[in-house]
Design a protein that fits this description.
Layout lengths: L3 H12 L2 H8 L3 H15 L4 E4 L2 E4 L1 H25 L7 E8 H6 L1 H11 L3 E8 L1 H9 L5 E5 L7 E15 L20 E4 L5 H13 L5 E4 L3 H9 L5 E4 H10 L3 E3 L6 E10 L6 H20 L7
Parallel strand pairs: 3-4, 3-5, 7-8
Antiparallel strand pairs: 1-2, 5-11, 6-9, 6-10, 6-11
Helix pairs in contact: 1-2, 1-3, 1-4, 2-3, 6-11
Length: 306
């Protein structure tokens, strides 16, 4: 897929030597020179410069080398994706996810993946958003799934699902019976919250601050499940992903309060490091995730990421 001229440039940039590039590509040194000169004429800029007896990349050459590196990764990724048609017999996949995704969405996907590819070992590491991003940056994961936004240029983000954050209350709470709850009424409530680093907690704090709301009290709990139990016992109210409370809403253990000011939309993202080559196993998982996102979104009346 990459042109011969680009491959020659890549070899010279890697070795900073025309002769060693010629050896690697099994072509003549004049052939290497021909391709480099042709590229420099095409771009109208010198790509290499010689200082004394050493060869260096120019600024233009350095920038082109960065693009070529990414092109090489994309070419390899395309090749791997096409090879997926041949099937998978073995391999390992390590996935990290924030709590909402890791507990309420991924088990179904991982279960289906293992049915289709029983020879693949899958490791799922559930934490909060901050921990998942840190593990990706440390190259401990193939993929990370978190709620957006994620502002880190070293990570590639792809949409997975649209999500909705809603206010949850006990069926006996007064908000469960009110048609509309206004922001000022929230100041009298105890808010049940997640730990710092949670994507849901970050969004809630941002919106509450923007509305100028300081709740009467807060109670920090270690998990979404603990928060749901506490809300059901009418110890306070909270904000949660619709995916995480769908079963309780349908069963009547929790109610969604009509609080337009705190009803928020967000996008769940699939992340990977921009410099990490996706294995055949990883590509297969990504394809399955895209396939199943439609069914998962329909289950709560939302939509798959676009």
């Amino acid at each position: 897929m990459l042109s011969q001229r680009i491959r020659v440039f890549q070899a010279v940039a890697a070795h900073l030597s025309y002769s060693r590039a010629a050896e690697e590509l099994a072509i003549s040194q004049p052939g290497v020179t021909f391709h480099i000169k042709a590229l420099e004429r095409e771009y109208g800029l010198p790509l290499f410069e010689r200082v004394g007896r050493r060869l260096y990349l120019t600024d233009a050459g350095t920038r082109l080398a960065a693009y070529v590196h990414r092109m090489t990764l994309w070419e390899e990724e395309a090749r791997v994706e096409l090879q997926e048609l041949k099937g998978l017999d073995s391999g390992t996949l390590v996935i990290g996810a924030s709590a909402t995704i890791g507990i309420y969405l991924l088990p179904e996907v991982v279960g289906e993946f293992r049915k289709r590819h029983p020879g693949i070992k899958v490791s799922l590491r559930v934490g909060n958003k901050r921990h998942t991003v840190e593990r990706l940056l440390a190259n401990e994961l193939d993929f990370g799934l978190v709620a957006g936004p994620v502002e880190d240029a070293t990570l590639v983000a792809e949409p997975y699902l649209d999500d909705e954050l809603i206010v949850i209350v006990a069926p006996t709470h007064r908000f469960a019976r009110e048609k509309v709850v206004y922001p000022g009424e929230l100041r009298r409530e105890t808010f049940l919250v997640r730990e710092a680093g949670s994507g849901t907690q970050e969004r809630m704090e941002e919106r509450m601050s923007a509305l100028g709301i300081e709740p009467a009290d807060t109670m920090q709990l270690g998990s979404t499940e603990a928060i749901k139990q506490a809300v059901a016992a009418d110890l306070g109210i909270s904000i949660a992903s619709r995916y995480s409370v769908q079963a309780e809403l349908q069963g009547g253990r929790l109610c969604a309060a009509a609080v337009p000011a705190l009803q928020m939309q967000r996008q769940l993202l699939l992340l990977h490091h921009k410099d990490k080559r996706l294995s055949k196993t990883a590509v297969a998982f990504r394809l399955l995730l895209q396939e199943m996102s439609i069914r998962q979104a329909q289950g709560v009346g939302l939509r798959a990421g676009t």
